[in-house]
Specification:
Elements: H1 5-12, H2 29-44, E1 48-51, E2 57-61, E3 70-75, H3 88-103, E4 112-117, H4 130-135, H5 141-145, H6 155-159, E5 180-186, H7 191-195, E6 200-205, E7 207-216, E8 220-221, H8 233-251, E9 255-264, E10 270-271, E11 274-283, H9 286-307, E12 310-319, E13 322-323, H10 326-338, E14 344-348, H11 354-357, E15 363-368, H12 384-404
Parallel strand pairs: 3-4, 3-5, 5-15, 6-14
Antiparallel strand pairs: 1-2, 2-4, 6-13, 6-15, 7-11, 7-12, 8-10, 9-11
Helix pairs in contact: 1-3, 3-12, 8-9, 10-12
This protein binds (2S)-amino(hydroxy)ethanoic acid and manganese (II) ion (MN) (2 copies).
Length: 405
């Protein structure tokens, strides 16, 4: 009896568990253990297990021909105190599909290759979709290896450390272009649950710009610097944050978030001299995303002038809104109709590795509902029946794609 996706998720869900949720950041002990577990699952299924030099892990099942693979997957890393389903569901679900094919001796036309993309969250090293972006050539490995995490360690040091690449897995240096790519993921939003529909055909993935913002004011004694002459870096940042929030609301159909912030010297009785923060700005509409970008720079200039502080804004990540492949979406809708499974077209506000892979081959995604739309939190949940149904639908979709390609 093949292991259920819920059981695989339960096993994965114990790796990196903390009080408030799961933390499996790239090249840390728990994330290394999660990759090692996937490698073990792959070997148990007599699949070829290989990795590349940024830490992407591939579990490959041979097909009748050696044509370009049908690739599918997601990520094993998590945000800080994250949930047990974001990313993990697409990987565990992919393993369940491979296990089902093996259990029934199904021979596919082409190889089926499950990918666990390294560092999708960008939660330790600040570039999102890190592994898949290197895989498609959007980012260069050598440049990414110089990235520095919040703990001061470079990506190279972490990768070459005890929790880097898996010691017993061969390294693959070629980046074969798949024939097509499919990703199974939780919705991370409330749309499917509110509509009472168990499956989502993802129409497009939101574009995302990420910025670092440095606000330079003047540190001083909290008790003696009079209010009118202060150049308080935190007050300037707070004003910028509120103006950014209003701008996003005004533009509409976009989101802007400051989720990471560091105050220097971060002392109760010192007026902050320096604040660094990061802005995460998104929209599925490129025009709105561009307007948000314009407003960010304009607001920074306005606040800097009014408060006589220096504000430097640097965009370090730019991912365009990504419409997903019409052909693969058509096959998915036909498959769901053939199995009398209800579905809804739904855009993705979250970004995914699929947006990178879509630049080298047709790519599409299938969603299952998130309870209360909660994600990137420890109480992220999806009902077991929805998880199982998603894997069944995903398997049928992959086999239909394999026949159609
Ligand atoms: O941030 C995101 O949208 C994704 O979960 N990394
Ligand atoms: Mn994800
Ligand atoms: Mn995520």
């Amino acid at each position: 009896m093949p292991i259920s996706v819920c059981d695989r998720l339960a096993e994965l869900g114990e790796i990196g568990r903390g009080e408030r949720g799961l933390t499996r950041q790239l090249f840390t002990e728990p994330e290394h253990r999660a990759r090692a577990l996937l490698a073990r699952w792959g070997r148990e299924l007599n699949c070829e297990v290989v990795q590349d030099r940024i830490g992407n892990l591939f579990v490959r099942r041979a097909g009748r021909s050696n044509a370009p693979a049908l690739q599918f997957g997601s990520h094993l890393d998590t945000v800080l105190d994250g949930g047990a389903y974001d990313g993990a569901y697409g990987v565990a679900g992919g393993v369940s599909v491979l296990a089902e094919l093996a259990a029934h001796g199904v021979e596919t036309q082409r190889p089926f290759e499950l990918a666990a993309w390294a560092g999708e969250e960008g939660s330790r090293f600040p570039v999102g979709c890190l592994g898949s972006a290197v895989y498609v050539g959007w980012e260069h490995l050598d440049e990414m290896l110089e990235l520095r995490g919040d703990d001061g360690m470079t990506l190279a040091q972490a990768r070459n450390g005890p929790y880097g690449l898996l010691p017993d897995v061969p390294i693959r240096d070629d980046f074969p272009r798949p024939a097509a790519y499919a990703e199974l993921h939780i919705e991370q939003g409330p749309v499917l649950e509110r509509a009472g529909v168990p499956l989502g055909v993802v129409t497009a993935i939101a574009g995302m710009h990420r910025y670092t913002v440095r606000v330079n004011g003047e540190a001083g004694h909290a008790g003696t610097v009079p209010m009118p002459v202060r150049r308080d870096a935190f007050s300037a940042t707070a004003e910028l944050a509120l103006m950014l929030e209003s701008a996003a609301r005004e533009i509409g159909d976009c989101v802007a978030t400051i989720g990471w912030l560091a105050i220097t010297p971060n002392q109760t009785n010192i007026v902050p001299g320096l604040v660094e923060c990061r802005i995460d700005a998104r929209s599925t509409d490129p025009v709105r995303l561009k307007e948000l970008d314009r407003r960010i720079h304009a607001l920074a200039k306005e606040v800097a002038g009014r408060r006589s502080v220096r504000i430097d804004v640097h965009r370090f990540e730019e991912r365009a809104p990504t419409p997903l492949d019409e052909g693969l979406k058509g096959i998915l809708r036909e498959t769901l109709d053939a199995h009398s499974l209800a579905y809804l077209d739904v855009p993705s506000g979250a970004v995914h590795d699929a947006m990178c892979i879509a630049s080298i081959c047709p790519a599409a995604m299938l969603f299952v509902p998130s309870i209360a739309g909660a994600s990137h939190v420890g109480h992220e949940r999806t009902a077991p029946a929805d998880l199982e149904r998603g894997v069944d639908a995903f398997k049928a979709w992959l086999l239909a794609i394999d026949r159609a390609l």
